[in-house]
């Protein structure tokens, strides 16, 4: 018998049946023709790579991980593993503290980076003043976009990372995966609009 899992249009099947009737072919020949035609039809369910969706989520997580320090990612995964070792109930109790601690670290990393750039700018301004060159106005402001993008990326990344006590049901896991892919596509586009370099191009020091 022909494989019943194939999918052909009814018009195609009827066309093959008429061809068999006109040629006086047997039922077995007709079934063979239908099976051959079905073998040439694309089968998305059978031919699709089952790892494609997982690969897309993994790629999205890699993109999101570029928006916050890798040390925070390692800290969260390690803390999550430790708390999960305490059991489902105890781990769920301590998980919010871990989540808040990660946000504190994100804020701290962004502020420290800003302070380092600010000190470098101040040092350059002092050097220009000492050399008798005109002072340049400060172009540095608090890096709000890096902070917000880091927080948003961390939320999406953490929700799609297995092990947290919040996203546990299959439906929630699927939604978190879709959100992670969406945010990984959204943030690079928003960065073009709201995330330009916070430091202006340096002026050449040899300018009189």
Automatic annotation (TrEMBL):
GO terms for molecular function: arginyl-tRNA--protein transferase activity. Its EC number is 2.3.2.8. It comes from the Bacteria. Keywords: Acyltransferase, Membrane, Transferase, Transmembrane, Transmembrane helix. Coiled coil: none annotated. It is an enzyme of class 2 (transferase). The chain crosses the membrane at residues 64-86, 92-112, 138-160, 166-187. This is Arginyl-tRNA-protein transferase. It comes from Maritimibacter alkaliphilus HTCC2654.
């Amino acid at each position: 018998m022909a494989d019943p899992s194939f999918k052909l249009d009814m018009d195609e099947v009827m066309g093959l049946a008429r061809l068999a009737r006109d040629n006086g072919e047997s039922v077995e020949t007709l079934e063979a023709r239908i099976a051959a035609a079905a073998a040439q039809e694309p089968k998305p369910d059978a031919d699709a790579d089952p790892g494609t969706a997982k690969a897309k989520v993994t790629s999205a997580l890699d993109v999101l991980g570029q928006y916050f320090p890798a040390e925070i990612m390692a800290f969260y995964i390690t803390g999550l593993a430790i708390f999960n070792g305490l059991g489902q109930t105890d781990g769920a109790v301590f998980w919010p503290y871990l989540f808040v601690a990660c946000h504190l670290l994100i804020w701290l990393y962004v502020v420290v980076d800003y302070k380092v750039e600010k000190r470098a700018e101040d040092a350059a301004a002092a050097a220009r003043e000492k050399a008798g060159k005109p002072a340049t106005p400060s172009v540095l402001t608090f890096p709000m976009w890096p902070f917000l993008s880091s927080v948003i990326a961390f939320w999406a990344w953490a929700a799609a990372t297995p092990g947290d006590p919040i996203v546990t049901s299959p439906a929630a896991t699927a939604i978190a995966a879709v959100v992670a892919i969406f945010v990984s596509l959204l943030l690079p586009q928003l960065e073009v609009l709201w995330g330009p370099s916070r430091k202006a191009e340096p002026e050449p020091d040899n300018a009189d």
